Amino acid sequence: MPIWNEKFETMSRAELEQEQLERLQQTLGRVYRRVSYYHDLFNKLGFDPLEVTSREDLRKIPFTTKETLRIAYPYDMFAVPLREVVRMQSTYGTTGQPLIVGYTHNDIDHWSELTARVLAAGGVTKDDIIQISFPYGLFTGGLGFHYGAELIGASVIPCSDIAIENQITIMRDYRATVLCCAPTFAAMLLEILDEKSVTPAELALSKALFGAESWNESFRTEIEEQLDLSVTDNYGLTEVMGPGVSYECEEKKGLHVSEDYFIPEIIDPDSGEILPEGEKGELVLTTITKEGYPLIRYRTGDITSLITEPCSCGRSFIRMTRVFGRIDDMIILNGQNMFPTQFEQILTDVVGKTPNYQLVVDRKENIDQLEIQIEVSQDIFDDEVKTLNRIERDVVREVKEKLDFIPRVTLVEPRSIVRRMKQSRVIDLRKPE
Ligand code: DLL
User: Beta strands of 268-401 (E only): which ranges?
Assistant: First the structure.
């Protein structure tokens, strides 16, 4: 698979670290001069950006949290005057107060470079026809990939606000070779292709790039087999840029972080201690090129780990493992921490493919209760009670064995659980403590 930017993506670690240091020094100077939050913070700490001589000096600065960004809403974290901002994007806003992020011309150019790397690593070339099914608008997925795809020279079909049935017609008639979307969209696509009896042979798709939500290896296998294509994962977040922070290559063994733009760290989410290499914890990112909305040691809330071992693709960037979950999505049941992805794996193993599901948490007489609602296909639903009972029993047994908790399982008909991008899998009915 061609590497989009050989010079940077395969740079020696020594050169890369030197580049990072220089970009970090510039960024720290910029935020000190232009963002009052960092100006006051550095003064309080007695931290002088001019004295930064190694990447490790970064550790002297406390983390930036989402709360800080919320307090600064709308424009107080911007590091340039609004006349230099050429685009604004916002967090999707499904929960809490949205955040606005501003980009300068240079930021947009950098962002296009970053998503071009993601697309090229997923096999996209100028000969491809790429259907971008991420929402365009304040959400960063649509426009983020659009610019990267144009930079590569692929033919873009900006397809977001069209009903999925019509997207299938477009995909087939326009001979789209690449699909760029959220895993939720892909799951719905599979269902509708099946209902309409559209076969992969009628489509020209050979690659798909999924991001914006967590998904798992079983789903990759399922979609690769059913649609006869290759799928890669990519990760990003609005506050830090949008898509383009990290991406899988053809090896599909972790996501390369574009380290010439972002410095990653992994911390213990409770203590804030930096964790040893390879340990799972919260990802913290520092932007080192951004002009409009630079962030220093931003706590992403995403759980992952870093892999420093070189990848056989030739890229020298560190890799992060698939996002295991978000700290906000962690469910605490009778004092034990669990993540939806852990349930998802169990359900996938029992049902044979990743089902649509929902975790409903409640508390009765001071004891936490969990109901797992699982959508099953119409055939299974109409099948003998024996099959339904087996699924219920197996899920209860596996959850008890793997997560040490006894849930209640309810099997529901297809399409009875909301399936929407970024929809949380957890409904917590417990009153706040
Ligand atoms: O989801 C940006 C994006 C768009 C990334 C398209 C990839 C593709 P936000 O709406 O700000 O931005 O949501 C960011 O989504 O903190 C993660 O929790 C989650 N997320 C993003 N990519 C992945 C992924 C975009 N590949 C939040 N796997 C992040 C798991 C992901 N979770």
Answer: 281-287, 298-304, 306-307, 319-320, 325-326, 331-333, 336-338, 357-364, 367-375
Q: Which of 305, 327, 349 is the last residue of a domain?
A: 327
pTM: 0.96
**First-last CA distance in the chain:** 52
Do 65 and 199 have their domain in common? yes
Q: Are residues 155 and 73 part of one domain?
A: yes
What is the b/e burial string over 383-404, where b = at least 16 CB atoms within 10 angstroms of the residue's CB?
Answer: eeeeebeebbebbbebbeeebe
- For the chain, percent of residues with pLDDT exceeding 70: 98
Residue 433 lies in a domain: no
Residue 173 Cα to ligand 1 midpoint, Å, equals 30
- Find all residues with CB under 8 Å of 411, minimum gap 6, and list them: 373, 374, 375, 376, 380, 381, 388, 391, 392
Question: Could you read off the pLDDT of 134-152 as tens digits, one per residue?
Answer: 999 999 999 999 999 999 9
Instruction: Determine the distance separating the centroid of ligand 1 and the alpha carbon of 367, expressed in angstroms.
Output: 33
Whether residue 58 contacts residue 263, with contact meaning beta carbons closer than 8 Å, is answered with: yes
CA of 22 to the centre of ligand 1 (A): 28
Number of domains in the chain: 2
Number of the ligand 1 atom closest to the C-alpha atom of 255: 26
If you average pLDDT over residues 150-162, what whole number do you get? 95
The rounded distance, in Å, linking the Cα atoms of 396 and 407 is 6
Tell how far the Cα of 198 is from the centroid of ligand 1, in angstroms.
30
Domain extent, residue 77, equals 1-327
Residues with CB under 6 A from ligand 1: 91-92, 134, 139-141, 211-214, 233-238, 242-243, 300, 302, 323, 326
H/E element holding 41? Answer: helix 36-45
The residue from 312, 327, 342 where one domain ends is 327
